[in-house]
Amino acid sequence: MTFPALSIKDSINALVNWLVAHWGDQLHAVSDFLLQWLLVPLESVLRGTPPWLVLLIVAGLAAYATRDWKRTALWVGLLFLIGCFGLWDALMQTLAIVLLSTLLTVLIGLPLGIAMARNDRLRAVVLPVLDVMQTLPSFVYLIPVLMLFGLGKVPAIFATLVYALPPLARMTDLGIRQVDSEVLEAAEAFGSNRWQLLFLVQLPLARPSILAGVNQATMLALSMVVLASMIGARGLGEDVLVGIQTLDVGRGLQAGLAIVVLAIVMDRISQAFGQDRRQKLALSRGDAR
């Protein structure tokens, strides 16, 4: 059996070249804005903040979210251990990229999910795109991102955005669609317009699903740390990459454990913010028993 010759690589290359030729200045301006006005200031603040103050802030967030001092002490102790490894500065660099990537994901994914929930036609168009974004291997879309933005932290942020956006948009759409129709009818009976329904009824009731989406986006952003180091993003991923390149197993494993610790802390805190007060009390009582 002979397959007919078919290739899309020339068309894709032509599209990327056209974007670079006609939108290169605009893309460069976006890159400069993200780097100079968002990422560098955030990274400078995190790296310039005393470690004890960062640990105190994390302890406050964890204690407020979980109402559990034992788990709070454990997570703060794990972060303290990263500092003992000599990786605190790299941790702050990684945290800056993850926080900014997650923020951009929320700013795009949340309105997109709301629009999908309110428009079935838009949902039918966007869902296949999200499927492609979620299943496409990361190295595949790194190539056009590098072509458009070059090496550095900005392409790492955009690559992370592509990878982390689908879960948040899907969970937001799902959460809003699962709001009980009887609740919506009651709100409409009291004279609520569509915007009041959205902000006062649907979004508050969909909050657990939305925060679960934010949690997933954060975890996916962290999972891109090592890959982002391959295109110029520094941080903990760089130590893992250097450990691989130099066969320094100890260095790579140590940085990998630091990434795991950061992932655990961010995951548990973000999950706790998604739970209501009764769930937190039930969990704390279960731990006490």
TrEMBL record:
One Pfam family this sequence matches: BPD_transp_1
Cellular compartment(s): Cell membrane
Transmembrane segments: 49-66, 73-91, 97-117, 149-169
Domain (ABC transmembrane type-1) ranges: 91-270
Membrane topology: Multi-pass membrane protein
Keyword Cytoplasm among record annotations: no
Keywords: Cell membrane, Membrane, Transmembrane, Transmembrane helix, Transport
SUPFAM superfamilies xref list: MetI-like
PANTHER family the UniProt entry points to: GLYCINE BETAINE/PROLINE BETAINE TRANSPORT SYSTEM PERMEASE PROTEIN PROW, GLYCINE BETAINE_PROLINE BETAINE TRANSPORT SYSTEM PERMEASE PROTEIN PROW
Annotated family: Belongs to the binding-protein-dependent transport system permease family.
Stated name of the protein: Proline/glycine betaine ABC transporter permease
Source organism of the structure: Crenobacter oryzisoli
